[in-house]
Amino acid sequence: EAAFSSALRGPWTQFTGLFEELLDRLPRRHEASEQLARLLGWFRELQERVEEAYLEATDAAQPAENTPETREQAHEKTQEMNPREVISDPHILITNQLNPVIRNSSENEEVEAVVPNVSPEEQADRELEEWVAKVRKSRTALDLATVMQACPEFASWAHNMGGFLKDWSDLHRVAGQLRPMIGISEHAWNVAQDRMGKQVATAAFALVFEKHSAGEVASPGGYLRGMVEKACAGELYLERSFYGRLSGQAV
């Protein structure tokens, strides 16, 4: 809030979005201590990054205290600090007065290609994006078409009950309607949604429904609870299950 009110430059919108996402992942019911500890770690790391970015932004916003130097003064100071003389003429870097080295434009282009000119702001943005991706790693990247192809029995029932399914919201609604058919209690379904999120819970339900229809799962409620426990421990890999079923269909 202080950064927004002071109009400081920085990734505040990203930080706010990630903070809200972490809040959404806080358990509404009893949760395993390992999951709570993991969430606490994310909150602490987010706090450290926000504080670091805020300090950098406030430092950048402050006017420079040093008085301007003339070009000659800056040149003299550079010579005093470094015994190697740097000449500002284009493409000339002198490291030894007796052996000047001259680079042409093509050589400079090759050097720039090897060492890209990345500003500190761009580097910070990249690091932030990588960290956000790490936080969200546990979320499934499955698309609707993959789920429906891998679970044809579920897809058939879903279309019969819901008609045209255009997005995950439609599929989530149908999953709630199909839930009683395979004996999954409302409590178990609510727990799955609370702890995994609606989209992941819907994908997990589709898989349970398909396996139960194929005779692979005798207790759908217990199987779903096991998937929830794995998700909380970061050990649920739905993509593998769906792509594995697709591979089995192709054989």
Overall description:
The structure is a single chain. A two-stranded antiparallel ribbon has the order 1-2. β1 and β2 (101-102) form a beta hairpin. By secondary structure, it is mainly alpha-helical. The chain has helices at 2-5, 12-24, 33-61, 71-81, 105-114, 120-135, 144-150, 152-162, 168-178, 186-196, 198-213, 220-232, 238-250; strands at residues 92-93, 101-102. The chain has three domains: 2-61; 71-120, no CATH class; 140-250, no CATH class. The longest helix has 29 residues, at 33-61.
Note the topology.
Elements: H1 2-5, H2 12-24, H3 33-61, H4 71-81, E1 92-93, E2 101-102, H5 105-114, H6 120-135, H7 144-150, H8 152-162, H9 168-178, H10 186-196, H11 198-213, H12 220-232, H13 238-250
Antiparallel strand pairs: 1-2
Short description:
The chain is mainly α and 251 residues long.
Structural class assignment: mainly alpha
Strand residue percentage: under 5%
Structural Rg:
29 Å
H/E element string? HHHHEEHHHHHHHHH
How are the strands of the biggest sheet laid out side by side?
Answer: 1-2
This entry's quaternary arrangement is single chain
Supply the number of structural domains: 3
Largest sheet: 2 strands, antiparallel
How many β-strand runs?
Answer: 2
Q: Kindly report how far apart the N and C termini lie.
A: 56 Å
Low-confidence stretches: 64-71, 73-115
Fraction of helical residues:
55-70%
Number of helices: 13
* Shape summary: elongated
Overall mean pLDDT? 71
InterPro entries: RepABC_RepC (IPR047611), RepC_C (IPR021760)
Region (Disordered): 57-84
Organism: Celeribacter persicus
Biased composition (Basic and acidic residues): 68-84
